[in-house]
Write a structure and sequence with these properties.
This protein has 348 residues and is of the alpha/beta class. The radius of gyration is 20 Å and the shape is globular. It has a 13-stranded mixed beta sheet with strand order 1-2-3-5-4-6-9-7-8-10-16-15-12, sandwiched between helices. The protein has a three-stranded antiparallel beta sheet with strand order 11-13-14, with no helix packed on it. It has nine helices and 16 strands. Helix 5 runs parallel beside helix 7. 43% of the residues are buried. A hairpin with a 5-residue loop joins strand 1 and strand 2. It has two domains: 264 residues, Aminopeptidase (3-Layer(aba) Sandwich), CATH 3.40.630; 72 residues, OB fold (Dihydrolipoamide Acetyltransferase, E2P). The longest helix is centred in the middle third of the chain and has 18 residues.
Length: 348
């Protein structure tokens, strides 16, 4: 990276714009120090890390990823703002923070992905089957490696918030998927933090997946979540007032030595996954309207979807749908169904 590019970054903070328009400038890893003594490391286009001048055992290591799907613009715009504010010293991070702008080519065409859904390519899935045959697979591998290197140097707690917006409307506008923890217990403090972000619906996953948040949770023992902050909108058309709580809470997490909000758990809705319905045939069809919101619930025995040789029905009253999508690739998840629960019921 040329010195004038470094000066431009410090003056404008336009890391994402330059990553998209002049990626060759970040082809090799670079590091520099800001006037406030914060250290900046750029590993590749869309991958930038900030570290405070002094690191202690209490220093948190926080990954904020966005744009794993290129058309989920609100989190991209939020992370772009944080990076700009850090580079221009409008705010100073008290912790180690790694920003990952995931699918840059998909952002350029305003699509979810170019060839393959990147959020099904983690935990090594990028190299399975045909291997690294497209740019999404190569980028997923690069993002994993960036997280691995970042957490390898982590002196204290590890966190990863993979920020998204959903394809369809939701009865619960903001919600988070808590990855399957195997033998670990769910963390009430993390649920309190998410509630401070305005995310008061938590979905507890019950099985391993190939999502980015599961990778960080399982491989690196991080507090990790897929955070859905609203509905997909084009760049520049997001009502950022709807994300004010998340912006404030994450800013405080980054800049304060110890940001520990509390929450009345009775205000948080907890769900657990009941069914994972995968698509196996090209004729997979949903049996509800395309505009049915996430978390719409049904009576037991309701037919949710059919395909050749299979019919998928709700198993109990109040079972709700999340992430229904009949257009996924064969073998991928087409619907999650969820039912209400509590942490006490799960952590026994």
């Amino acid at each position: 990276m040329l010195l004038n590019m470094q000066s431009q970054l410090i003056e404008s903070g336009d890391f994402l714009h330059l990553s998209r328009t002049q990626p060759a400038q970040f082809a090799t890893a670079e590091a520099f120090t800001l006037a406030n003594a914060s250290k900046v490391s750029i590993q590749a286009p869309g991958i930038i890390m900030f570290e405070p001048a002094t690191i202690t055992a209490q220093t948190k290591s926080i990954v904020l990823s966005c744009g794993i799907h290129g058309n989920e613009t609100a989190p991209i715009e939020m992370c772009d703002d944080w990076v700009r504010e850090l580079l221009t010293a409008q705010i100073t991070s008290a912790h180690r923070v790694l920003f990952l702008f995931g699918n840059l080519p998909a952002m350029d065409i305003a699509e979810r992905f170019v060839e393959e859904n990147m959020n099904r390519l983690f935990s090594g899935a990028h190299s399975e089957g045909e291997g690294l045959v497209n740019e999404e697979r190569k980028r997923a591998k690069m993002l994993e490696e960036a997280v691995t290197a970042f957490f390898a140097d982590a002196p204290g707690e590890r966190f990863h918030y993979d920020l998204h917006t959903a394809i369809r409307e939701s009865k619960n506008e903001k919600f988070a998927v808590y990855p399957y923890l195997h033998e670990r217990a769910h963390n009430p403090g993390q649920i309190a933090f998410l509630a401070a972000c305005g995310v008061k619906t938590i979905l507890l996953s019950q099985s391993p997946t190939t999502t980015f948040s599961y990778y960080s949770s399982h491989i690196h023992q991080a507090h990790a979540f897929t955070v859905e902050l609203g509905k997909v909108q084009p760049f520049g058309q997001n009502d950022m007032r709807r994300f004010a709580d998340a912006r404030q809470a994450i800013t405080q997490l980054i800049t304060q030595d110890d940001y520990t909000p509390s929450v009345d758990m009775s205000t948080v809705d907890i769900y657990t996954v009941n069914q994972v319905i995968n698509k196996h045939q090209d004729d997979f069809t949903l049996h509800f309207a395309d505009d049915t919101p996430n978390f719409t619930d049904f009576n037991a025995g309701t037919v949710l979807a059919t395909e050749t040789g299979a019919e998928y029905v709700t198993q109990q009253d109040g079972e709700a749908i999340v992430f229904p999508n009949a257009n996924v690739a064969i073998g991928q998840r087409a619907i999650l169904t969820v039912v209400p629960t509590t942490l006490a019921q799960q952590d026994v």
